[in-house]
Amino acid sequence: MTPMGTIDARWLEDRPIAHRGLHDAGRSIMENSVSAFQAAIDGGYAIECDIHLSRDRVPVVFHDETLLRMTGVEGRVRDTDAQALAELTLGGTPDAIPTLRSLLDLVAARVPLVIELKGLSADLDGEFIEIVAETIRGYPGALALMSFDEWLVEQAASVSLSVPFGLTAEGTRADVLKRHRVVFAGHCSFVSYNVHHLPNAFVDWIRDERHLPVISWTVRTPADVERSHRYADQMTFEGFVPS
């Protein structure tokens, strides 16, 4: 098994990352939609997206645990089969909820992908990493996985992944930063950190001692851009088009 900390993730530094695609609800381009991903591809930006498992264990591209905000339908992603999810449209647009497989087919290695895994609990997510690993197996493009969820980071450490795995994190309290180091150590190749919580000792340790990349989230204002530029290696942006 290749330790994840040895997998090169420096390509994350190369271009800005469009948060949930290059979405713009004012133009009916909804987050985590095919239209948003195509817009990011056309702009030459890397793509960040979110993955849940459906009830039948298919990785689908969606941020929230529940469906209501984006589809107007009550229910949870994890309680709904992939076929039923594919029939739900996003924000009243023609775009439906994509699967991870369809996203890979769309992007086709044209821009990098940064995929956040959205778990529910250690008990419910027992096969999450294995299912995603099988779905992305053989994908020829730049791709990284990441998660807030400690149990998914631990799962990833036990699977022979061929792509970088990162810790998504936030916080500034000393006990929180100490816990981040415990979760990260030996298991991850990069960090995605809340831009409003930069700088901090954990991120400094990642960059200065581990010499691994830090990307920031979610950059929305000129002040955020400046903070990310100073304290991170690349930004995950939303609501504007980087110059």
From TrEMBL:
One of its GO terms (biological process) is lipid metabolic process. GO terms for molecular function: phosphoric diester hydrolase activity. Residues 14-243 form the GP-PDE domain. Pfam families: GDPD. PROSITE patterns: GP_PDE. This is Glycerophosphoryl diester phosphodiesterase. It comes from Aureimonas pseudogalii.
